[in-house]
């Protein structure tokens, strides 16, 4: 598994700025807020992920660096970690040392795998659109240590600003589509090719058909295959969509169904 997940400055924008770039794409302002969060909290990197209560879907909106991106993918694949707990509970998850007993007991698989990324602390702040939690601001450090009071408040402020941007974008999208968009990850082309997991969700649909299971079960099977074989989920998904790989052969053998 050691290779499975390997491959600043500026003031935060004002809260009334819409999350679009100069070309009007969705969530274009999130990157500036992530950079601001890194600077204001003393973190080494940041990412913003969108999630859905109605399925296992998760979309990476932005990551400041490869480690932040791999951290998000790691939690996406294994289905556990501080960011997932922050989303489900709606409460911040502040873990100053991921090598301690409490962290290991909470996330036994995640804490083993995260060591390969040289990440020692992780701070996850729920991101809300209105009164609904839609995602998480993820901040990591390569060294152990707590956030100071000012740093923690800065993380909360950046998460709130990101939520405001998401709300503005979703309102704009809903107006354009003439529909009420409650969950941004459900069927919306949210991000550019650099971070988008569209190919993963396409692969999930194909796996569901191959194995005659639900979409959620298809995603679980895809995750298990990637983890068991030590391969990045994006690479496996691309192989499935290109028909270089089929999980149909795993249906009877049980291979790739996890450890």
Keywords for this entry:
Beta-Lactamase, five-stranded antiparallel β-sheet, disordered N terminus, disordered C terminus
Unreliably modeled segments: 1-25, 177-193, 252-259
Q: Roughly what percent helix?
A: 40-55%
Helical stretch tally: 10
Roughly how many Å apart are the termini?
12 Å
Q: What gyration radius follows from the Cα positions, in whole Å?
A: 18 Å
Spatial arrangement of strands, main beta sheet: 2-1-5-4-3
Number of structurally distinct domains: 2
CATH topology of the largest domain: Beta-Lactamase
Q: Any guess at the CATH architecture of the largest domain?
A: 2-Layer Sandwich
Order of helices and strands: HEEHHEHHEEHHHHH
**Shape label:** globular
Structural class: alpha+beta
Total beta strand runs: 5
| CATH superfamily grouping of the largest domain | GAF domain
Give the class-level CATH name of the largest domain.
Alpha Beta
Strand content: 5-15%
Mean pLDDT comes to 77
Describe the biggest sheet? Answer: 5 strands, antiparallel
Structural features, described:
The protein is an alpha+beta fold and about 260 residues long. Helix content is about 45%, strand content about 15%. The chain has 2 domains: about 30-175, Beta-Lactamase (2-Layer Sandwich); about 200-255, no CATH class. It has a 5-stranded antiparallel sheet, sandwiched between helices.
